[in-house]
Amino acid sequence: MGENHLVSFSMVFLFAAVFIGQAHGSSLCDKAAFPALCRSTLKGASDPTSALKNAIKHLIFETRRAKVSSLRIGSLKSLVVCKQNFDDAIDDLETSLAYMQKKDIASLKINLSAAMTDYSTCDDAVIESGEQKKASRVLNTDNLLEQLAANCLYLASLLK
Ligand SMILES: *[C@@H]1O[C@H](CO)[C@@H](O)[C@H](O)[C@H]1NC(C)=O
Question: Where is the signal peptide (predicted)?
Fold first, then answer.
């Protein structure tokens, strides 16, 4: 194969990669706050609605895990608040999915933002009670949950 053939083969491959990337919706996350993390939650969705649905379901899954993990730390004052807020976040995310189904985008966004607030309420409780060291795992997990929630809010902004 001559050099020209190699070049054109590379170009075909590049265009194919870009095209397949779009078909799989990975470009949906290009302007998200945390693009790589965003792409990892889409599960091949190619339109904003299914992308957001998968991203919210992923966030619900991670919030459930965060709750279980926080319960293993032991009894800290702040963790009572965190457990409650993880439950609230799951409720708010389920409500968001329901509003998405009804195409009520404004209510979807309000409830997504409420989930975001739930995570930071947990952070505040940990910090106010001076339990940062003992509950450091919760703060780290919350950081991830807040990034996932920010990506959901971004994907919600793509809906019409
Ligand atoms: C969810 O959205 C509805 C409709 O906008 C609103 O009434 C409700 O307060 C929201 N829930 C939260 C937790 O913000």
Answer: 1-25
Answer yes or no: are the C-beta atoms of 45 and 51 closer than 8 Å. Answer: yes
Ligand 1, residues 56, 101, 107: which to mutate, most atoms within 8 A of Cβ?
Answer: 107
Coil, helix or strand at residue 1? coil
Residue pair 90/60 in contact (Cβ under 8 Å)? The answer is: yes
Residue 92: the pLDDT is: 98
H-helix or E-strand spanning residue 12: helix 3-23
Instruction: Return the CATH fold of 2-157.
Output: Butyryl-CoA Dehydrogenase, subunit A; domain 3 (1.20.140)
Ligand 1, atom 2, lies closest to the CA of: 107
Distance 108 CA to ligand 1 centre (A): 8
Q: Where are the domains of the chain?
A: 2-157
Task: Show Cβ contacts of residue 59 under 8 Å, excluding neighbours closer than 6 positions.
Answer: 41, 93, 115, 145, 148, 149, 152
Could you tell me the mean pLDDT of each successive run of 10 residues in the chain, 160 residues long? 56 52 68 95 93 98 97 93 98 98 97 98 97 96 98 95
